[in-house]
Design brief:
- The complex is a heterodimer.
- Chain A is mostly helical.
- Chain A is built from two helices and no strands.
- Chain A has a domain at 25-71.
- In chain A, 57% of the residues lie in helices and 0% in strands.
- Chain B is mainly alpha-helical.
- Chain B has helices spanning 4-38, 44-52, 54-72, 112-143, 150-172, 178-183, 191-209, 230-250, 282-303, 308-322, 331-356, 364-382, 399-426, 434-439, 443-462, and strands spanning 253-256, 271-273, 279-280.
- Classes of the chains: A mainly alpha, B mainly alpha.
- The A-B interface holds A 1-4, 6-16, 19-22, 26, 29-30, 32-33, 36, 40, 43-44, 47, 51 and B 258, 261, 264-269, 271, 278-280, 298, 301-302, 305-306, 328-330, 332-333, 335-336, 339, 382-387, 389-390, 392, 396.
- Chain A: Keywords: Membrane, Transmembrane, Transmembrane helix.
- Chain A: The chain crosses the membrane at residues 20-40.
- Chain B: It holds the Pfam family Ammonium_transp.
- Chain B: Keywords: Membrane, Transmembrane, Transmembrane helix.
């Protein structure tokens, strides 16, 4: 048993195609990859929104903001 | 060199490795920028020089004995055979100098064709391996900044860079290495061979060295010591990413005929191979390098809440954790492994810091040590049953062989480094005194700099009319 179907390299390479593990599960892998990508955007948006809310709640007097402007 | 094809193959291969050496130098530019960026202002110069001087020290020692270890020790010796004769790697051999690739007088069993290929490549092959050696040593450097004595690090750099890593490379990263033969060990782009061993050595150094003053509060919880310059840190890491392309390319043999691989592979199709002479392609590693880097950075951004230091570091960890199998993985497998393992390493970094009071200033043990270790282990499962080598009689890749190999790599870095650090510590040669640590290790250099500025300024002002 081999995860990519290759048991030996004693073959003619012109007859060999894909050599990655778990061939045949490409569609499943693409779906998992897409879920990972979309999930990343969801999590990132949540984090960024929370960060912006914290920034909005900070510096009620505007003093820190003036210092930040002075620092350029 | 007889025949145009032989000549072209030889010169192409020579130029290929030469280019990888140039690219890999960027790793060290990156390491220096990264370490200086992480250190505080009163420690910059010594931090820079501590890392930079590993380059010449590992270079000369790798010339004297490191290269010979790689070719002499693939059998252990004593595990799969005896010591192997390797005259071309002995520092007194004419092949370790300017040479036009003819057969040396008295050299037995070497045909003019063999000589034309190997004799020509000896220097660039040596250089590529040397750059791996310097990288392995440099990985330790960042974790111990601001309190370790430079001299202690340089002794450990030679130990790890010119002895330990090249010994494990001879065992597990060599076409005839005993770990490959007997265990089916597979680690194509050095997750264990370079990174796990360096992480093990860094952990040993840190345990004996102890944390920086002020790192832990009286109640034992850790304080954050932020980098003084995040820009420098992240540009340094970008340069390390860039240099890593050279590292990956150098791990391949770019062009080889089936006949050269002991006639095991049939047909006429020439190919690139990994270090074990098993076929792969530059396209494979390009797909997988970029996808694993992306997996690490995307995961890093989320788990660290956008922290630049950890987002970049986890990108690096993504590559390291897939390197063992990036010659064979599918790109989406590389993406997912490159996201999951760095997340575990990030959590482990803070767990170990909290639980064992280990002050690793750059997270090197996590990124390289745990990332490399887990990468080798996962490759054992993912590539289970695949041939580890084109040669007959070698064990196939398997989870147990890779797990045992990962443990061996980490321990081979940890134990000798721990012993050497204990000895250095007993001689008061490991750590600077607390007073110097508080003043900053650049104290005298900074005073000399300021005195020079004052003196020349005074002289110039006196000339104003």
């Amino acid at each position: 048993m081999s995860t990519n179907g290759m048991e030996s390299w004693a073959v003619d390479l012109k007859d060999v195609g894909a050599i990655y593990p778990f061939q045949g599960s490409e569609v499943v892998m693409v779906i998992i990859g897409l879920v990972f990508w979309i999930g990343w955007h969801v999590l990132q948006t949540r984090h960024e929104s929370a960060e912006i809310e914290a920034d909005m709640a900070a510096d009620r007097t505007g003093e820190e903001t003036r210092k930040a402007i002075d620092r350029h | 060199m007889e025949g145009n094809l032989n000549a072209l193959t030889t010169i192409f291969t020579e130029f290929y490795y030469w280019v990888t050496i140039v690219m890999m130098f960027l790793i060290h530019v990156g390491f220096c920028m990264y370490e200086v960026g992480v250190s505080r202002r009163r420690n910059h110069l010594k931090t820079l020089m501590k890392n930079a001087m590993a380059i010449p020290l590992v270079t000369i020692t790798f010339y004297f004995f490191g290269w010979w270890i790689y070719f002499g020790f693939p059998n252990g010796p004593g595990i799969a055979g005896g010591l192997v004769t390797a005259p071309f790697a002995e520092p007194w051999n004419p092949l370790m100098g300017t040479h036009l690739s003819g057969v040396n007088p008295g050299e037995t069993g070497v045909t003019p064709t063999d000589a034309a290929l190997w004799h020509r490549l000896n220097g660039v092959f040596w250089g590529a391996f040397l750059l791996f050696s310097i990288t392995t040593a440099s990985i330790i450097s960042g974790s111990i900044i601001e309190r370790a004595r430079s001299g202690a690090f340089w002794i450990v750099a030679v130990l790890v860079g010119s002895v330990l890593w090249i010994l494990d490379a001879s065992w597990g990263w060599h076409p005839q290495g005993w770990m490959v033969k007997l265990w089916g060990y597979h680690d194509a782009y050095a997750s264990g061979v370079v990174h796990a061993i360096a992480g093990g050595a860094a952990l040993a150094f840190l345990i004996v060295l102890g944390p920086r003053i002020g790192k832990f509060r009286p109640d034992g919880t850790a304080r954050d010591i932020p980098p003084h310059n995040v820009w420098l840190v992240t540009i340094g890491l970008f340069l390390i990413f860039t240099g890593f392309w050279g590292f990956y390319a150098a791990c391949n043999i770019p062009l080889i005929s089936p006949a050269t691989i002991a006639g095991q592979i049939t047909g006429e199709t020439w190919t690139a191979t990994n270090i074990y002479l098993a076929p792969t392609t530059l396209s494979a590693i390009t797909f997988n390098f970029l996808m694993s880097l992306s997996g690490g950075m995307l995961a890093g951004y989320i788990v660290s809440k956008g922290d630049p230091f950890w987002t970049f570091s986890m990108g690096l960890c993504g590559v390291i954790s897939t390197s063992a199998g990036n010659d064979l993985y599918h790109p989406i497998q590389a993406l997912l492994i490159g996201a999951i393992i760095p997340t575990i390493c990030y959590k482990l970094h803070y767990f170990v810091e909290r639980r064992f009071k280990i002050d690793d200033a750059v997270g090197a043990v996590a990124v390289h040590g745990y990332g490399g270790f887990l990468g080798v282990v996962v490759a054992g499962f993912m590539l289970w049953g695949q041939p580890s080598s084109p040669y007959e009689g070698f064990a196939h890749i398997n989870p147990l062989g890779n797990f045992a190999g990962a443990v061996l790599m980490f321990v081979l870095g940890f134990v000798p480094t721990f012993v050497v650090c204990k000895i250095l510590n007993s001689m008061n040669l490991l750590r600077v005194p607390a007073k110097v640590e508080l003043e900053g290790v650049d104290f005298a250099l900074n005073h000399a700099f300021e005195a020079s500025v004052r003196e020349v300024g005074t002289a110039e002002k006196a000339m104003i009319k």
